[in-house]
Amino acid sequence: MTTILVTGGTGTLGRLVTDRLRADGHEVRVLSRHSEPYAVDLREGGRALDTALAGVDTVVHCATTLRGGDERSAANLVAAARRAGVAHLVYISIVGVDRVPYGYYRSKLAVEKAVEESGLGWTVLRTTQFHDLVVGVLRVLTRVPFVVPSLGVRDQPVEVAEVADRLAALAVGAPAGRVPDMGGPEVRTFGSLARAYLDATGRHRAVVNVPLAGKAYRAFREGGHLAPGHAVGKVTFEEYLAARFGGGEDGRRG
């Protein structure tokens, strides 16, 4: 039986990866800042991280934050994994981190490099945006009487449960390096995703297209974050919305 540690194991993706690995009979340790017995802040590292990694065969690194610190966390994790003799480090990244000059993407790319140069066996999977993230953005936008998607931007949302299946399979396999990207089944305009969300939640908002400026926006507009050649996801955005909001936002329409 393999002992696997999942960082960010209480998060949207990490929780599902943990469930799948445990269902397959693996011993799984969940590492997060507030989850005992392996409550560790990766940005700090230290003895608690060494304890969490003792006897671990594989690490699935799902922990991340938009507030900064991913590179420091990765450096601490890699160093501790080396000390513990971990055989396989699996990292979940994002399609386009090498093409879109956006701060968070640059950080993810730097972590990829740290994983590749770690001296450990490694696997990196890049995916497009999760359905959940798209809905989170749209929920914020629909707090006002109109929705303002960026003109010309498209997205290719993928179901997080499908990503968890893929990541769990990679975790129990041999180190594979950079594996093929994983994208959702459809490339959609952000405006069409907004309209689908409004329809599913029974909201009435005007959808207004507003162009933005800057290098990052240009890269998004040009599709640097898309993987149309790897549209392997099965669940469409509408199917996800129907499952989550069958009765509208918070279970009721109107």
Kindly describe this structure.
The protein has 254 residues and is of the alpha/beta class. It has a single domain (3-251), classed as Rossmann fold (3-Layer(aba) Sandwich). Helix content is 39%, strand content 15%. The protein has 9 helices and 10 strands. It has helices at 12-23, 47-53, 70-84, 103-116, 131-141, 160-171, 190-201, 215-221, 237-244; strands spanning 3-7, 27-31, 58-61, 88-94, 121-127, 146-147, 154-155, 177-178, 188-189, 206-207. The strands form 3 sheets. The chain has a 6-stranded parallel beta sheet with strand order 2-1-3-4-5-8, sandwiched between helices. A two-stranded parallel sheet has the order 6-10. It has a two-stranded antiparallel ribbon with strand order 7-9. α1 crosses α6 (160-171). The protein is globular. Residues 250-254 have low confidence and may be disordered.
The strand order across the widest sheet is 2-1-3-4-5-8
Q: Mind telling me which CATH architecture this is?
A: 3-Layer(aba) Sandwich
Shape: globular
N- to C-terminal distance: 50 Å
What is the CATH third-level topology name? Rossmann fold
- Give the helix proportion (percent range): 25-40%
Strand content is 5-15%
Work out the radius of gyration.
Answer: 19 Å
Biggest sheet architecture: 6 strands, parallel
CATH class descriptor: Alpha Beta
Number of DSSP E strands = 10
Strand/helix succession: EHEHEHEHEHEEHEEHEHH
Structural class based on helices, strands and sheet pairing: alpha/beta
